[in-house]
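Handover notes (outgoing to incoming on-call)

Open items:
1. DUF1330 domain-containing protein: sequence verified, structure written out, both below. Nothing else pending on this one.
2. Nothing else urgent.
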Amino acid sequence: MNAYLILDISINDFESFKGYIEKIPAFIQKHDGRYVIQGVEPEVMEGDWKPERVVVIEFPTKEGAKGFLNDPDAQALFDIRHKSTTSKLILAEGCL
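DUF1330 domain-containing protein structure tokens:
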């Protein structure tokens, strides 16, 4: 069953964040993931959720998504994201 990492992100330091943007796609691909939504400015339709940007990454399995998040070689990039952005991340499995 497909799994999705959904990221609500506000960029605080774009210069630092650029390193993450350039290098993280290789790790997503390494774990058979792909961008479904890549850093778009969403249009709020209901409620008070006001994300600045949204990213959705699809993986074939929940384990693949967790493998990506736990990849030791990607941790330095996640540190860059944590230091240069304010973000919220959830993992959700698909219906099919």
